[in-house]
Amino acid sequence: MNKSIGFIGGGRVTKILLQGFKNKNVKSGKIVVTDTNPEVLTNLKKQFPEIEPSDSKAAAGQDFVFIALHPPVVMDTLELIKNDVKADAIVISMAPKINLPKLSMKLGHVKNLARLIPNATSYINEGFNPLTFAPDFDPSQKQVILDLLKTLGTTFEVSEEKLESYAIMSAMLPTYFWFQWRELAEIGGQLGL
User: Is it the case that residue 168 has pLDDT exceeding 80?
Assistant: First the structure.
């Protein structure tokens, strides 16, 4: 793949995707990452020397643009970068709660909009990553993005209404209940099971 990648936000989810891509030796054009915290970019650059730390306008101008921001800042950031995103770019938001119609309000000139909620096991290429596409997403480009994301683990298309439910069941639910499962295992061991 010779497409360039931009990450708007260099935090945890960006690190997870970059590591997953690195594990599978995914080749791409340049990878541009922006973050408001220079220390985040410095640390990311140490782990992934191939990235180019830059500003949000440069990251927004790539072929694939991943929006890796917390929901409260997504809409304001999209307002700032909307003119820098190419009309033929593939924009993938990884923010919960900001649905495709809201993304389209800011990026109306981009038809290839998608939402992805990756989970942390994508770091070791064992992710369970639901993905939804905007209704007018170019069908010929769907397989391109699916091929890229499948390097992270199981990636599958779902309707947008189910996207966050999958994330809750596959990522958040185990996080909240892990301590209870661990306690049950210990009790089972004490009982000789």
Answer: no
